């Protein structure tokens, strides 16, 4: 009787999420969270983008300047070029939610250190106190949004999928919270990607828990924080549309979801809806086509193939925009069709990866080294299903950002976080079983070893040698070529895997939406 009772109790806990009341689980999650926070604090003690590099500095100064602008001039003028808001000096180029976030952080900085956000006189402000406060705004944003969303996802993912091994939950949460790429960019280089990515994780978890309306609100907020979140839009649209088609009243469901999205956008854009010109002013800042199809040495299709095809010289910007649009649509179409045809939780996660990789590889301008954080997010969420893909993409995402992080003098945190990642991934007794991981063999294993050796050699060469004067960016170009080749390989594999998903409990659960 006691065994039956215990078994019944366990089954109930797996079904309703009550397992979270388990003291050991709470303690494990708490330890991981505190450790992840400490790692961020240590990384934040290092240098940042544009430190001491006058007159325009870098992303740190951009974020600080947005706080200065949003604090000192009316919201209607945040995106307008004027004598008090020179858009050529780090003008706002993200959606309104980023501006509101900058304003909230500006209030915090103004309370403790008014000089750091004073109009005009604070340009290039780099005091130790100012840096401490700026770093604190990122840490608090990370904990409040990204950490909370990650824990929410892990609870929902393992509850829905029936994966009730606590060690796998802890392993997965640690990989999400201690991802080296996001920590280096947000807490080293200095950005707030944790907000848009956290909102996206929350939206994904809401979909997995059948809360589509909440998912629409969260993803709309993510879109209004960073426009690059649109990398995930095809996956969200196709998955939700596929589920709407299977709803008792498809038209009503589409209307419900559409009204939630439109309502969220109206609330966010309200200060700019007083005229069409005001909306156009904001939109023109979000899509700077005049910059060209790519910048720097980013490991995407256009920049990589420019070694052979000089896209910018051969074609005008309007033509390149059409090429980019066509290639991006072709890249996302197979994944969208699969989700409309047979929406499933697991298929949705693959669709997020495929959609974001297509945008990263083919989209116009919105791509820079840091954009690889977007495809890396769904790969991290798929870590239990695709551990090798996740490990491989994480490593080459780091490699693709290595030149940027070297310029920011973040080599030591780079190496330390890479080692930490490897240690967490290979924790004995916790990482996925060999049956799930399907280790490569033969020629595939040999090829992977050769690629890893090449990447290790590139790290050493980039740090120790100088490129030929005739080719000053030779090393960046080689890193870009190697990284892009791996991203393309992963994109092909992931698309094929999404289409080969077998009919399983993941799909059966969503054939009929209650």
From TrEMBL:
Question: Which Pfam family name is an example for this entry?
Answer: Alg6_Alg8
How would you classify this enzyme at the top EC level? transferase
Task: Please name the GO terms that the record assigns under molecular function.
Answer: dolichyl pyrophosphate Man9GlcNAc2 alpha-1,3-glucosyltransferase activity
Q: Which residues cross the membrane?
A: 132-157, 169-185, 197-222, 252-272, 322-340, 346-367, 388-405, 411-427, 447-465, 471-493
Keywords carried by this UniProt record? Endoplasmic reticulum, Glycosyltransferase, Membrane, Transferase, Transmembrane, Transmembrane helix
Quote the protein name from its UniProt record: Alpha-1,3-glucosyltransferase
Q: Which domain of life is it from?
A: Eukaryota
Enzyme Commission numbers on file: 2.4.1.-
Localisation: Endoplasmic reticulum membrane
GO cellular component, as recorded: endoplasmic reticulum membrane
Family label: Belongs to the ALG6/ALG8 glucosyltransferase family.
Q: How does it sit in the membrane?
A: Multi-pass membrane protein
């Amino acid at each position: 009787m006691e065994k039956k009772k215990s078994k019944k109790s366990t089954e109930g806990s797996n079904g309703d999420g009550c397992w979270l009341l388990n003291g050991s689980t709470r303690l494990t999650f708490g330890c991981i969270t505190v450790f992840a926070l400490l790692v961020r604090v240590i990384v934040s003690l290092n240098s940042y983008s544009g430190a001491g590099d006058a007159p325009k500095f870098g992303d740190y100064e951009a974020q600080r300047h947005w706080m200065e602008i949003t604090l000192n001039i009316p919201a209607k003028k945040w995106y307008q070029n004027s004598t008090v808001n020179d858009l050529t000096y780090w003008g706002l180029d993200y959606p309104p939610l980023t501006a509101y976030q900058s304003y909230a952080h500006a209030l915090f900085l103004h309370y403790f250190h008014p000089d750091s956000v004073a109009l005009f006189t604070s340009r290039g402000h780099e005091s130790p106190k100012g840096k401490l406060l700026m770093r604190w705004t990122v840490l608090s944003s990370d904990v409040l949004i990204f950490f909370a969303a990650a824990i929410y996802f892990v609870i929902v993912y393992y509850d829905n999928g029936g994966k009730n091994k606590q060690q796998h939950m802890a392993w997965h949460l640690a990989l999400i919270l201690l991802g080296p790429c996001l920590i280096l960019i947000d807490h080293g280089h200095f950005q707030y990607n944790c907000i848009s990515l956290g909102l996206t994780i929350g939206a994904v978890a809401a979909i997995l828990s059948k809360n589509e309306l909440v998912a629409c609100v969260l993803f709309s907020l993510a879109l209004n924080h960073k426009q690059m979140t649109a990398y995930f839009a095809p996956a969200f649209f196709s998955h939700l549309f596929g589920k709407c088609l299977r709803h008792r009243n498809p038209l009503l469901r589409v209307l419900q979801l559409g009204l939630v999205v439109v309502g969220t956008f109206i609330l966010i854009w309200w200060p700019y809806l007083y005229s069409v010109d005001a909306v156009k002013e904001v939109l023109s800042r979000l899509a700077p086509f005049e910059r060209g199809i790519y910048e720097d040495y980013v490991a995407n299709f256009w920049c990589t193939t420019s070694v052979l095809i000089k896209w910018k010289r051969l074609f005008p910007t309007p033509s390149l925009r059409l090429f980019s649009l066509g290639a991006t649509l072709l890249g996302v179409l197979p994944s969208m069709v699969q989700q409309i045809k047979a929406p499933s939780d697991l298929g949705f996660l693959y669709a997020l990866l495929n959609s974001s990789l297509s945008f990263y590889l083919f989209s116009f301008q919105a791509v820079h080294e840091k954009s690889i954080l977007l495809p890396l997010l769904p790969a991290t969420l798929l870590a239990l299903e695709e551990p090798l893909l996740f490990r491989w993409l994480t490593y080459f995402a780091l490699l693709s950002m290595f030149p940027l992080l070297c310029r920011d003098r973040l080599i030591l945190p780079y190496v330390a976080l890479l080692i930490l990642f490897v240690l967490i991934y290979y924790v004995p007794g916790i990482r996925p079983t060999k049956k799930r991981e399907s280790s490569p063999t033969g020629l595939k294993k040999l090829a992977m070893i050769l690629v890893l050796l090449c990447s290790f050699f590139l790290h050493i060469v980039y740090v120790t040698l100088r490129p030929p004067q005739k080719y000053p960016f030779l090393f960046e170009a080689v890193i870009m070529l190697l990284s892009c080749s791996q991203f393309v390989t992963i994109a092909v594999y992931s698309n094929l895997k999404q289409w080969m998903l077998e009919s399983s409990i993941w799909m059966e659960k969503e054939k009929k939406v209650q």
